[in-house]
Write a structure and sequence with these properties.
The chain has 28 helices and 27 strands. By secondary structure, it is α+β, with helices and mostly antiparallel strands. It folds into five domains: 109 residues, no CATH class; 100 residues, Beta-Lactamase (2-Layer Sandwich); 79 residues, Beta-Lactamase; 151 residues, 2-Layer Sandwich (Alpha-Beta Plaits), CATH 3.30.70; 269 residues, EAL domain (TIM Barrel, Alpha-Beta Barrel). Helix 9 runs antiparallel to helix 10. The longest helix is centred in the first third of the chain and has 67 residues. InterPro entries: Cyclic-di-GMP_PDE-like, EAL_dom, EAL_sf, GGDEF_dom, HAMP_dom, Nucleotide_cyclase, Rev_trsase/Diguanyl_cyclase.
Length: 796
């Protein structure tokens, strides 16, 4: 038996303790490090998955905003209604280029392909997503990952409303290497996309060198989305995320991170721990014990920090140790500092992503999602109280004209400047929002209804100003639609919808401010029905033309008739023209309606000629008709087909219609004039044109508005206005027509003033074609003068 001294026993004991402690510490550190690496890798993949989902959501929002801009475009709606394939393809290509979309399609409501930027689909003339139409219709639109021609797309299917659904617009972003590389830059993860179409691998995209790895990885991860895989002698931890599984095709995203690289970052720590343990054995048992004990503590602290970070808590700073006192603690401190830096980077990245989710990328204002959350929070706060708040939907008047005139870049700068002007108009807690292209939202808390209009006028006076953009002073005017909580609604969606209805009513009435009126929902639904029924009425010829004659005082006979459209709805009865014509203008149906009227009137003219009646047909056209460059070509082609000369047609338009876009209107009117078609200014005296503008118009006829003629026999003021207007018209070389002649005395006065033509109920009310022909054949203007002479002789 070996005799060992107490000192040696103590030394052996301490040496044994330090060795055991060192070994235990080393094993503990290695175990904790391995676990930490695994957890960090999982956390990194989970964070990467969140980033990927939020990136896809951002792309989805961009798709939605872009599709809303496309489907709200007036010209696009008109092209859809006309089914002009070339125009539709051009619009889709231009819009797709502006938003960097990879796929643009348009399909009818029953799944017929109308236009596509995809050459294969366009060549095959088929709509590949017809099986998704029912789901899209139920949900009011559909966001989905799809496969087409071996490629995967993030696709949005959205209805085109004019204002009722008329077509489906499809906008898509390609899921490709650019997306994979973008996600890799954001997360530092390897990103792969695998797609299978009818059990055949058709999509292999990966930031790894070998795309075959993507296929094998996807096949092995069908049961468990978490897998450790080996590739090129490297260990990877991978996470599979299904994007879509439609039965006959599926698309998966695979996020992976290298475990070897993660373990390699801990190699210096392992070496340092071994070195520290060796030095501890040589220096002293006590120091070894202290070092062994203190190594475990910071490592555990880092493990706890890693667990806290993996749960999404980034608020606490990771404590570091004093590097001057302890070499081991200095190295652990570096590791802790690295953990702390990583924590801040992850927190900053998530903060940026969350900011994009709730803010408009152009103006920095809150977006629709954030606005809805603000409104819901305010409703919850105001519930069970008598407090009220107002929602203001603000729209820039003629913003499209600004874009068309100065360009989209100037338009974007104007939107940013306008957005800045909204901040001072509400409280600091309630941020203004941008809902669409040029539509903004303000929330006004604690509103007193009696002071509402004063507040609205103050806001509009602040907004209706000139904005200095790129050395340009661009004047801005606005429409404002208003809904009050709880007066006009108690739900977020209800308030937003009624705010939008109030805005549309303000636009329709050309009023700067519109406050929601009770019952407008029903009126809005009726308008939607009328628009839909008007389309049917146009296709089935349910509309009727009435005619009112114009008497030529020089020729003493009827030479013209004015065509007036009438609609007798099979269920709703008579619909006033002012009601459905306004809806036709708002819904984009006006060009179709005007062409129907011109075609019907000229056909009636041909029918009348066969019965010996040769009259000039006067047809009213609107500002929307003057905005279409193809109208003159259509009219001349129709005249040629019907073998009518241009003298058989006179087009009447109001001063307001001409002045809305005077340059465009003048261009169209000059083309009509060059073809020999006479032009007339209708309802003269009620518009806002100046004499300098009037003399530049190529018009032949001036119609004095009936408001000046109805009481002409009694009103000295009307007599002065009418007489001076007739004289002015003659000085400008125009034929003057007075409408609204109600009695023989007014006839005599107008004849004495030199008026050229008369129109009114005294002569004849508007009649349908058959009744008018019968009246025309029996009417003799000379009877008016014969009866007048007889009256004079009796009085003498």
């Amino acid at each position: 038996m070996i005799d060992i001294s107490l000192r040696n026993k103590i030394l052996i004991l301490f040496l044994s303790l330090i060795v055991i402690s060192s070994i235990t510490t080393i094993v503990s550190v290695l175990f904790a490090t391995n676990n930490s690496v695994e957890r960090q890798a999982q956390d990194k993949l989970k964070v990467g998955l969140k980033v990927f989902e939020q990136l896809m959501d951002i792309r989805a929002n961009q798709l939605f905003e872009s599709a809303e801009v496309l489907t709200a475009d007036f010209g696009f709606k008109a092209a859809v209604l006309d089914k002009d394939e070339q125009t539709l393809i051009s619009v889709l290509e231009n819009h797709g280029a502006r938003i960097d979309a990879d796929l643009m399609m348009l399909a009818s409501l029953d799944g017929e392909l109308l236009a596509s930027t995809d050459a294969i689909t366009q060549a095959e003339n088929r709509f590949p997503f017809s099986d998704l139409l029912s789901d899209a219709e139920k949900e009011g639109g559909l966001m989905k990952t799809v496969m087409l021609n071996g490629n995967a797309y993030q696709m949005l299917m959205l209805q085109v409303n004019a204002p009722v659904p008329v077509a489906w617009a499809v906008v898509g972003y390609l899921i490709d290497h650019n997306l994979a590389n973008q996600l890799k830059e954001l997360t530092t993860l390897e990103v792969s996309f695998s797609g299978v179409y009818r059990q055949e691998q058709t999509l292999n995209i990966s930031t790894l060198d070998d795309v075959v790895h993507t296929t094998s990885m996807a096949q092995t991860m069908t049961q468990d989305p978490w897998q450790r895989v080996t590739w090129n002698d490297q260990q990877f931890l991978a996470l599979l995320t299904p994007l879509v599984d439609a039965g006959y095709y599926q698309v998966d995203a695979i996020l992976s991170t290298s475990l070897d690289d993660a373990f390699a970052s801990f190699s210096p720590l392992k070496v340092q721990i071994l070195t520290i343990s060796g030095v501890a054995l040589l220096v002293s048992v006590l120091m070894g014990f202290i070092i062994a004990r203190n190594i475990t503590r910071p490592v555990n602290s880092l493990v706890n920090a890693a667990q806290r970070i993996s749960s999404g808590n980034y608020s606490e700073s990771i404590a570091t140790h004093d590097a001057q006192r302890d070499f081991k603690r200095n190295e652990i401190g570096k590791l802790a500092a690295s953990f702390d830096h990583m924590q801040r980077e992850i927190a900053d990245r998530e903060e940026k992503i969350l900011y994009q989710v709730y803010h408009d990328t152009l103006t920095g204002l809150a977006n629709r999602m954030a606005a809805q959350q603000q409104i819901e929070g305010l409703i919850h706060h105001y519930d069970q109280t008598d407090r009220k708040f107002a929602l203001l939907s603000i729209n820039l008047q003629k913003f499209k004209l600004i874009n068309d005139t100065f360009g989209y870049q100037t338009g974007d700068l104007l939107l940013q400047a306008f957005a800045e002007s909204l901040y001072p108009l509400t409280s600091d807690e309630l941020k203004p929002a941008r809902l669409g292209a040029d539509e903004f939202l303000l929330i006004l808390p604690d509103i007193v209804e009696s002071e509402l209009y004063e507040k609205l006028n103050d806001i509009q006076s602040e907004l209706n100003t000139s904005y200095s953009i790129s050395s340009l002073n661009i004047p801005v005017t606005t429409y404002i639609g208003v809904a009050l909580y709880p007066t006009h609604g108690t739900r977020t969606d209800q308030l937003l919808r009624r705010t939008d209805i109030a805005l549309n009513q303000a636009k329709a009435k050309s009023q700067d401010i519109g406050v929601y009126e009770t019952g407008s929902d029903e009126k809005h639904l009726k308008q939607i029905r009328l628009v839909n029924d008007l389309k049917i009425a146009l296709t089935e010829d349910q509309l009727t033309m009435f005619y009112q004659p114009k008497v030529d005082l020089h020729e003493k006979r009827v030479t013209q008739v004015e065509a007036l459209i009438r609609w007798f709805h099979p269920e709703l009865g008579f619909i006033p023209p002012d009601e459905f014509i306004g809806l036709a203008e708002q819904s984009g149906l006006m060009p179709t309606l005007s062409r129907w009227v011109i075609r019907r009137v000229l056909n009636d003219a041909v029918q009348w000629q066969s019965e010996g009646v040769d009259l000039i047909m006067a047809v009213n056209i609107s500002a929307y008709d003057l905005a279409h460059d193809d109208l003159p070509d259509y009219v001349m082609r129709l005249l040629k087909d019907l073998k009518l000369s241009s003298r058989h047609l006179i087009l009447e338009m109001t001063e307001s219609a001409v002045m809305q876009d005077s340059n465009q209107a003048l261009s169209i009117l000059n083309r009509f004039n060059s073809e020999g078609i006479k032009l007339a200014i209708d309802d003269y005296g009620t518009g806002y044109s100046s004499l300098s503008q009037m003399k530049s118009l190529p018009v032949d006829e001036l119609k004095i508005d009936m408001s000046f003629v109805l009481n002409l026999d009694e009103s000295k003021e009307d007599q002065a206005i009418v007489q001076s207007t007739i004289e002015m018209g003659h000085n400008l070389g125009l034929t003057v027509v007075a409408e609204g002649v109600e009695n023989r005395k007014s006839w005599s006065l107008l004849e004495r003033y030199g008026c050229d033509k008369l129109q009114g109920y005294y002569i004849s009310k508007p009649q349908n074609s058959q009744n008018f022909l019968q009246w025309f054949k029996e009417y003799d203007v000379n009877n008016e003068y014969a009866s007048e002479s007889h009256s004079d002789s009796l009085s003498g």
